[in-house]
Amino acid sequence: MQNIDIVKVVMVREESLKTERFAIRSSRDADFVARRYLEGADREHFIVMMLDTKRVVNAIHTASIGSLDATIVHPREVYKAAILANASAIICAHNHPSGDHRPSEEDRQVTKRLVEAGLILGIDMLDHLVIGESDYTSLRSEGYM
């Protein structure tokens, strides 16, 4: 006879980011929150901001940490936390430690895959920001979503 594990999946809060809670109404708002979280990162971090129905960020999850110029991102890792947080929508962001905020072809391809996965799961992906040293690019504003 074989034992089958019975499991419970939960989200564990690691820490909190001190900031005022407000609805994300623009990519500039999302950049403000993402920059606060990514401050001081020396490698590429891909984060997921999970929003409630009023577009307030309830949680942030680091889906991937890469090297100086790349990170591997899989839709499974992006949406796992969003499902656990009961997010109605997400905004993804990642930093370019080089300081360049222009999206790469890989950034555009990842965005496309994440949007498709979100449609299947019923979780809207509102934007994907590429954050540079002093500016950012919204892939939605650039027409890639």
Description of the structure:
- It is a single chain.
- The protein has helices at 27-38, 75-84, 105-121; strands at residues 45-51, 57-65, 89-95, 124-131, 136-138.
- The protein has one domain (27-138): Cytidine Deaminase, domain 2.
- The model has no long low-confidence stretch (mean pLDDT 92).
- The N and C termini lie far apart (50 Å).
- The chain is 27% helix and 23% strand.
- With 145 residues, it is α+β, with helices and mostly antiparallel strands.
- The chain is globular, with a radius of gyration of 15 Å.
Helix and strand string, N-terminal first? HEEHEHEE
Decide which structural class fits the backbone: alpha+beta
Residue share in β-strands: 15-25%
CATH architecture: 3-Layer(aba) Sandwich
**CATH-wise, what's the superfamily?**
Cytidine Deaminase, domain 2
Distance between the termini: 50 Å
Low-confidence stretches: none
For the largest beta-sheet, the strand count, sense and barrel status come to: 5 strands, mixed
- Overall, the morphology is globular
Q: What's the mean pLDDT score?
A: 92
Q: How helical, in percent, are the residues?
A: 25-40%
What is the number of helical segments per DSSP (H or I, 4+ residues)?
3
CATH class, please? Alpha Beta
β-strand number: 5
CATH topology: Cytidine Deaminase, domain 2
Sheet with most strands: strand arrangement: 2-1-3-4-5
The Rg value, from CA coordinates, equals: 15 Å
The number of domains: 1
Family: Belongs to the UPF0758 family.
Pfam family, one: RadC
GO molecular function, one term: metal ion binding
Keywords: Hydrolase, Metal-binding, Metalloprotease, Plasmid, Protease, Zinc
